[in-house]
Amino acid sequence: MIRRPNTLAAGLAVLVAVVSLAGCLPQPTPPVPDPFPDRIRLDDAGEAWARSTLANLTLEQKVGQLFSIPAPGVFAASDAPQHRRVLELVRDLQVGGVIFFQGSPLAQASFVNDLQQASAIPLLVSQDMETGAGMRLSGATRLPSAMAIAASRNPDLAYLAGRVTAAEARAVGVRQVLAPVADVNANAGNPVIDTRSFSDQPDLAATMVDAFVRGLQQGGTLATAKHFPGHGATSRDSHFSMPVLTIDAARLDSVDLVPFRAAISAGVASVMTAHVAYPNLDGGQRRPATLSAPLVRGLLRDSLQFDGLIVSDALNMAGVRQGTPGSIAVDALQAGVDMLMMSTDIRAARRAILRAVDSGDLAESMLDDKVLRILQAKAAAGLHRSRFTPLDDVRRDVANAEQRALNARIARAGITLLGDSTAAPVSDEPGRSVYVLALSDRAISDRHEPFLDLLRERLPETSISSTLVSPAGIGDAQAEALREARAADEVIILAYGSAPAWRLRPQTSARFRTLMRRVEQVSSATHAVIFGTPYLANDVPPGATTYLAYGDGPAEQHAAADAITGRARVSGKAPVTISESIPLGAGADRRARYPRDAIAEEVGMDGMALEGIASLLERAIDDRAFPGAAVAVGRAGAVTHMAGYGTHTYDSQTRITPESSFDLASLTKVIATTTAVMQLYEQGRIELDAPASLYLHDFGRNGKESITIRQLLTHTAGLTPFKPFYQMGLRSRGRVLQAIYNEPLAYEPGTESKYSDFGPIVLAEIVSRVSGLGFATYASRHIFEPLGMWHTGFRAVGRGAQPDAVPTEDDRYFRYRVLQGEVHDENAWIMGGTAGHAGLFSSVSDLTRFASMMASGGEVEGRPFLRPETIRLFTTAIDSTRTHTRALGWDTKSPEGYSSAGQSFGPRSFGHTGFTGTSIWFDPDVGLFVILLTNRVYPTRDNRGHIPVRPALADLVRNTLNAAEAVSVTD
Fold first, then answer.
1. Is residue 615 domain-shared with residue 717, that is, in the same domain?
2. How far apart are CA 102 and CA 138, in angstroms?
3. Residues 239, 253, 810, 925: which is the catalytic one?
4. Model confidence over 570-624: pLDDT tens digits?
């Protein structure tokens, strides 16, 4: 029903200006701001307008207001026949509304303005937007299905889905959204409702309906609960025939009416009737509810006390075509319907209504009540103040970044994993193979291609083959499917379709089941994704790891691709009972293994502001600060920006990409060495305050026997900062280590902090001694492989140029060549390329996985890779007076003066830099990280142009968080 605020002084109404129908038609003018942009309500001015307008209408004009006619939303010339026909009906019959179908946003908004200009009274523009405006309009936001939203178990998402839908609806001129579906999907084989329903559980459906209605109406559009009194138990589609339900009043009251009551309590503005017969509730009559006075007037209007607008379902549907267009229209009005949608012959229906009034079969006072409700609905939607749609609103409000982000969030929340939460996602280990078997209920040649593209993006080094099978091609495809499944490391079955599409062809369904079972039997690992009705899970072999997406829209496909590859948490719960083994609420909760690519707005960042990264780095490249760079930005389990800029060298044509391998230099100290120490510390195999010589006896020479692990980590061990061993004739790993062991103290340990490479070198040796593994092997086995950092590791020297690596320096004094794929640091080079202070190669793509682990408190896939308290311990500055900024292995932000973390990162920020132009910084207070990899030492290390770039990048990234979002967030 329409919300009415408290009535003001009775005399105020007479002061309201009344539109005169005798004057000229309104002309488009700059729109007056709608006074009620955030909720549907009827104020005194709107009530006065509605009553005054009604008082000035002739009988013919009143009858015209009862009709809503179809209109095309596609672009056409102003003199196109389809446009002329609608304009003529609007002018000649003065219809009350139009209902749009397929089209495009700008074309529809423009035509809405044409129609509003042609109409003497503002038109109520309606559109079916059950899954958002994208359900009808290309380029608009297509939301997940109602069932997908309910799978999230989060009514806030249903509310936000309503808000997104309302925003885009208003932008294209729509003020009445023909949603939500309030039907309880009590029949798993329902041929028309299925995933359009929120649930087969009345209370869950009611909760979601309530939230969606509130979202729509607080967003400024009239919501329409449908299909009253319920279409969820039908086994026929009312588009093609009239379903008959022989349920009793008790069943209707306890199941079907529950969501409608919730909608009415939420203030729903309109209700749509169903073309479904209920003979047990209608005196034995087998007529659609649309034409039933006991159901419409008696039940909806009187018993449920709904005083809002009642609209019919489309009158061109077979379920209601039991008579002439005229008799159907009259019967619907007599039953209690206010607005007639899509009569098959509006002129004939109009004549029949006028005859019925003239004969006394329809009282004009009854028409007055109906027309008044229509006019009140228009006023509640603000149409009496502003009927035109600014075309700029389309560009601003349709599919903008915030709406795309919310759409992704809703889709992700609904993905449901059937089975065990320990079920592994598809591996992205390089060199593996995946076979995709796509089963489609319709012969659409490229139906699976969008998902394949998403899969290839997420598995770039996996060989992916596929077969698409439609009902007609099952026999021919079996041999190929079995051959491919045997050869692949993993198999993914995609099932596209609705429950009736499979169930109405039992032979086809059985053959699909047989094919899936045989494929699963020969496969090493089988996954299945159901893009459509969840009831198809009954056909999937029980040995498959199955994901429910509840639809095949773009958002669902993205979410499913993230889920199956471990890039997003999966937590949806089945909103319907699928079978005894898959009951209502089934669904495991599996945390993400890797960060996902995300729209910045998903995690409270400004995507347009992040685009400034490109100009910042391109300007730095033009200034020859470095030839190339790669950047990654992430927050809350998501990577919001990851890109490469520039080329390998100033003369190279090889572009930098997120997968380009950089020499990390001193980032080795934190990514490998410190992380290894953290792990061994957690295992109790290394104690921070134990002498390093306890683990590495040779280190305790020349007064170093009491230096602790903690002091090595914090650069307070009294060690010499650096020695150029390569200039001292040392040419082996053993000789470098012995030189460090023999080195005397440079200052008293613990009295000050001096950055030294020797501490991390020693720590790497301790890791090897304690673990029994070479340092490179330990790091690969216990850090890089578990995190999926497949292209991170140490590289042996002396192998010549490695084209996959980004060059560093043109070395003119030691190695006499351009260094590419061998460590730049001379001491690490002497040690063979593996050392605790330098030598690691990686990409921003790999480092986002490490950074996401750190930013999430050490969690990977719901399990602790590192404990949160360990991360806090190692990343907190040890000197509270901040005379230096060192933590355990990590550095922290300088409290004043220059910091490579910039000025905007918070006081608890931690990170590290590398000599080759690399850096990584975290702001734990907002869950943010930024990674910058450059080769600033090319062609010479004497270049310092990167120094101002680091803080500028950090500030740019941190400032993309608006004040409201600058809080810690989780996925």
1. no
2. 8
3. 239
4. 999 999 999 999 999 999 999 999 999 999 999 999 999 999 999 999 999 999 9
- Would you call 868 helix, strand, or coil by DSSP? helix
Same domain, yes or no: 159 and 136: yes
The sign one gets for the Cα dihedral 691, 694, 696, 700 is: positive
Q: Compare 626 and 799 and report the one with higher pLDDT.
A: 626
- If pLDDT is split at 50, 70 and 90, which confidence band does 846 have? very high
Return the DSSP state at 174: -
The boundaries of the domain holding residue 35 are 31-397
Average pLDDT, integer, range 64-73:
96
Residue 32: per-residue pLDDT: 36
Q: Are residues 152 and 270 in the same domain?
A: yes
The predicted-structure confidence for 174-206, as pLDDT tens digits, reads as follows 999 999 999 999 999 888 999 999 999 999 999
Nearest one of 183, 192, 272, 195 to 232, comparing CA atoms: 183
Active-site residue identified among 128, 183, 256, 313:
313
* 50 and 122 assigned to the same domain: yes
- Residue 250: predicted pLDDT: 97
Residues 276 and 174 grouped into a single domain:
yes
Which amino acid does the sequence have at 965?
A: E
Grade residue 964 by pLDDT with cuts at 50, 70 and 90.
very low
Give 425's contacts (C-beta < 8 A, 6+ positions apart).
563, 564, 565, 566, 593
Same domain, 575 and 628: no
Q: Which CATH number covers residue 708?
A: 3.40.710.10
| pLDDT surpassing 70 at residue 31 | no
pLDDT band at 506 (very low <50, low <70, confident <90, very high): low
- What does pLDDT average to over the chain? 93
- What tokens does 753 get? 């902090």
Instruction: List Cβ<8 Å contacts ≥24 apart for 851-854.
Output: 851/632, 851/634, 851/920, 851/922, 851/929, 851/931, 852/594, 852/595, 852/634, 852/637, 852/639, 852/929, 853/787, 854/922, 854/929
Residue ranges in 24-177 assigned as alpha helix (H): 44-55, 59-65, 81-93, 105-118, 146-151, 155-171
476's enclosing H/E stretch is helix 474-487
Report how far apart, in Å, the C-alpha atoms of 520 and of each of 428, 474, 485, 561 are.
Answer: 20, 16, 8, 20
Pair type for strands 340-341 and 433-440: unpaired
804 labelled catalytic? no
Sequence-distant (≥ 6) Cβ neighbours of residue 365 within 8 angstroms = none
Question: Looking at residue 582, which CATH number applies to its domain?
Answer: 3.40.50.1700
Backbone region of residue 267 per phi and psi (left: phi > 0; alpha: psi in -120 to 50; beta: other values): left
Which of 29-33, 362-366, 824-828, 883-887 shows the lowest per-residue confidence on average (mean pLDDT)?
29-33
Ranges of H-type helices in 291-384: 293, 325-335, 346-359, 364-380
Residue 426 to residue 242: CA distance in whole angstroms: 46
Residues 438 and 351 in one domain: no
Specify whether 942 is catalytic. no
SS3 per residue for 920-954: EEEECCCCEEEEEEECCCCCCCCCCCCCCHHHHHH
Return the pLDDT at 34.
39
Return the number of other C-beta atoms located less than 10 Å from residue 277's C-beta: 25
pLDDT for position 497? 83
pTM of the full predicted structure? 0.91
Q: Among 841, 868, 894, which residue terminates a domain?
A: 841
* Residue (of 191, 289, 181) closest to 236 by Cα position: 191
For the chain, the domain total comes to: 4
Are 442 and 381 contained in the same domain?
A: no
